[in-house]
Amino acid sequence: MNKKETHCLLCAQLLQSEPSWKTLLTKQFPPCICKKCASRFEHAPSPTALYQYNDAMKDYLHQYKFLQDVALAKVFRQELQDQFNHEKSPIIPIPMHPLKQKERTFSHMEELLKAAKIPYIQLLEKTTAETQSSKNREERLQTASLFQLLPSVTVAYKEYVLFDDIQTTGTTLRHATEILLQAGAKNVRSFTLING
Fold it and tell me: What CA–CA distances, in Å, run from 189 to 19, 48, 84, 87, 164?
């Protein structure tokens, strides 16, 4: 059973939520942010992303990733559960470089999936600690390969789904896709939390 949040994880206001038959029968996660905070996030028109990048999302990413507030992995757990619950293809979160993960203390992509109780596998490792956010569009497009397969990994001839937090130029997802296809994947789709 999920621990019920009593206060919004983003603004700390008391949550005013009554259990409904829908949440009880469908085993939905209880809300962890208030309706006001939820309304600040803008849904993406794209079928390959949940949200658009805006000021609310910028604040969320800063708090979650850079201030290491791992509890915020829960914020989008219901939306991710709804998106991936019936996914048949293995889901691969975009990995962090080991040095970055040690610095941040957790893998923000894996924590999002864990909070939503979505199974995933890892076939890739990042080859550079340099972040794409530190580069302009041209530099991102000219970046050398960011990933390699993990040692002793075999990529089966089937479809995979890459999951990343944000897509701006698509460089990260393109590089990961190329590595998987070269290693024998049949097809690679991608899905992001945010469309940048």
Answer: 36, 9, 13, 12, 11
Q: Which CATH number is associated with domain 21-195?
A: 3.40.50
Query: Cβ neighbours of residue 125 under 8 Å, at least 6 residues apart?
Result: 95, 98, 147, 148, 149, 150
Chain segment 154-169, per-residue pLDDT in tens: 999 999 999 999 998 8
163-to-23, 36, 55, 105, 174 alpha-carbon distances in Å: 26, 27, 22, 20, 12
Tokens of 56: 């609310």
Whether the Cβ atoms of residue 180 and residue 154 lie closer than 8 Å to each other: no
DSSP code per residue over 165-186: EEESSSHHHHHHHHHHHHTT-S
Q: Name which residue leads in pLDDT, 17 or 183.
A: 183
Selection from 83, 167, 172 nearest residue 124 by Cα: 172
pLDDT value, residue 1? 38
- Residues of the chain above pLDDT 70, percent: 86
Among the listed ranges 18-22, 99-103, 127-131, 171-175, which one has the minimum average pLDDT value? 18-22
- Do the Cβ atoms of 49 and 195 come closer than 8 Å? yes
Strands (E), the chain: 49-52, 91-93, 124-126, 147-149, 159-167, 187-195
